[in-house]
Amino acid sequence: GTWNPRDLNAVVTNDINGASLATDRITLPAGVYEIEAGAPARNATSHRLRLQNITGAATLLLGQNADSKDTVAGDDIQTTAHHLPDFLCNRDFQADL
């Protein structure tokens, strides 16, 4: 199917020099990171989270498949992903569903 970029519009804490969030993209400087990501959905049928490396044009991680089409009104079904990447240079990412 088609991947749809998620809206990324809030930074809770940013203690990393050179890291930023702008135009739905995350920029991280070179380094080693622990990335834990989640994307809730409601009545979206099958969905999956992808963290796409825009700089390197490659998928960094994929979440598990989730199905939210038969959920009770108000229930969100979460797809999550976890990864420990090591970047040698700055990278830009976007989260897709």
Describe this structure in words.
The chain is an all-beta fold. The chain contains no helices and eleven strands. The model has no long low-confidence stretch (mean pLDDT 78).
Q: Give the biggest beta sheet.
A: 5 strands, antiparallel
For this entry, what is the oligomeric state of its chains?
single chain
Q: How much beta, percentage-wise?
A: over 45%
> Structural class per helix/strand content?
mainly beta
Spatial ordering of strands, largest sheet: 1-2-11-6-7
Label the overall shape.
Answer: globular
What structural keywords apply?
single chain; 97 residues; mainly beta; 5-stranded antiparallel beta sheet; two-stranded antiparallel ribbon; globular
